[in-house]
Amino acid sequence: FVKMASQVGKAFRIKGTLLMAVIADAATVTGMLLTGMGERNHKGQTNFFIVEKDTPTADIEAALEKMLDREDIGIILVGQSIAERIRPKIVEHEAVIPTILEIPSKDQPYDPEKDTVVTRAASILWGADTGMQKLKEIKEAKGVVKK
Amino acid sequence: FRIKMSTGILPSRMNLQLFKIKAVSAKKGFDLLKKKADALKKAFRGILQKIVESKACIGEDYNEAMLGLAEATFAAGDFSRAVVDHVKKKTPVRLTVHSDNIAGVHLPIFTLRHEEDNSDDNSLLGLTGGGTAINKAREKFTKFLKVLVTVASLQTQFVTLDQVIKVTNRRVNALEFVLIPKIKFTIDYIDKELDEESREDFFRLKKVVEAKKQRQAEKYANNDNKGKQDNENAEEEVMVEEQDAFDDDDEDVFI
């Protein structure tokens, strides 16, 4: 559910609890479902979406839209390689809740340089150019760089 | 730069009082808002730092979890279909949202809750083998999930603070560059007008007194030349003129 711009920062009360959701490759989703976070409610809606190599981008976007429209989802986890494909939709999302969180994909280790939130944070902390530099350094420090 | 200021305000002493009070409260509001903006900026920087660091860390937890999954798949075969099929109608894994109050701003924070689980379908998994490996994988993914919830909370705080800081800065700038100069301009204008008025009054009064003196002087000169009859006329004239003088002044004196 969208938090209106005028509501941001003011007191709020969210009744009940919220769900987590995940849009990722098959292995990641399987792992997440193992924890028991999956749900298929009486309307047939699921809080997970498996993306395979041949899943069209439009389908992924539609799945994200459906999740955003639901009022009971708090966090949407999106695999980073998938996030890359639907980047415009993610950047367009401005509401505080649900929040879209990028996670690594099976085929692609986490790259902080591509994460929307992290790049904004870095550019505010250190300035536009130095920010990206710093992210590169962090990436290398974590040994995530592909050789 | 010049702002177009309207001078449609009546330049009275009462308004001068009013606008002086407005200037004081605008300044107070401005100082308070600045303090708020500074406090928010500080909190913001803290969160920014945390976000960049913790996001870089989730990669490690993820890799561990995927490793556990790979081991479990090796031990028990591909159970992904089974997991998807056994997804429940209502998951016990849920989030509660609290608010954290920083400088009057409410930031949302997630907490992971595991509600009471009556049925445990997952126990059917791994019966044919590899049950331990599956359980291990489940633990690792649960750990990963917890880390994700913390990071997501940081994200919501980040987004909220970002917007609130923008709004607060806009209000600070509006006060500093539009409202306070406008009030100052009005105060200066009223001051000038009041000064001008009192100068005009003083000048008019002077002129009237001078005019009267002149007329008086002329009358005495006439009396000496013409005699008593003219005296009476002169007195009448003086009286009439005095009244005229008063009439002229009427609207000026009583503001």
Structure description:
The complex is a heterodimer of chains A (147) and B (255). By secondary structure, chain A is an alpha/beta fold. In chain A, 40% of the residues lie in helices and 14% in strands. Chain A has helices at residues 26-34, 57-69, 80-85, 87-92, 116-126, 128-141; strands at residues 19-24, 48-50, 73-79, 99-103. A four-stranded parallel β-sheet of chain A has the order 2-1-3-4, sandwiched between helices. In chain A, helix 1 (26-34) links the parallel strand 1 (19-24) and strand 2. In chain A, helix 5 crosses helix 6. The longest helix of chain A has 14 residues, at 128-141. The mean pLDDT of chain A is 82. With 255 residues, chain B is mainly α. Chain B has a domain at 13-177: Helix Hairpins (Orthogonal Bundle). Helices cover 75% and strands 8% of the residues of chain B. Chain B has a two-stranded antiparallel ribbon. In chain B, a hairpin with a 2-residue loop joins strand 1 and strand 2 (105-114). In chain B, helix 1 packs antiparallel against helix 3 (131-226) and helix 3 packs antiparallel against helix 4. At the A-B interface, helix 1, strand 3, strand 4, helix 5 and helix 6 of A face helix 1, helix 2, strand 1, strand 2 and helix 3 of B.
Question: Strand share of the residues of chain A?
Answer: 5-15%
Task: State the CATH architecture of one domain in chain B.
Answer: Orthogonal Bundle
CATH topology of one domain in chain B: Helix Hairpins
Low-confidence parts of chain A: none
The CATH topology label of the largest domain in chain A is Rossmann fold
Which CATH architecture of the largest domain in chain A is right?
3-Layer(aba) Sandwich
Number of helices of chain A: 6
Order of SSEs of chain B, N→C?
A: HHEEHH
The class by helix and strand makeup of chain B works out as: mainly alpha
Q: Specify the biggest β-sheet of chain A.
A: 4 strands, parallel
- What's the β-strand tally of chain A? 4
The count of strands of chain B amounts to 2
* Helix coverage percent of chain A: 40-55%
Q: Largest beta sheet of chain A: what is the strand line-up?
A: 2-1-3-4
Spatial strand arrangement across the major sheet of chain B: 1-2
What characteristic shape of chain A results from the CA principal axes?
globular
Distance between the termini of chain B: 36 Å
CATH level-1 class of the largest domain in chain A: Alpha Beta
Give the tally of structural domains of chain A: 2
Q: Spans of chain B with pLDDT under 50 lasting ≥5 residues? A: none
Tell me the series of helices and strands of chain A, N- to C-terminal. Answer: EHEHEHHEHH
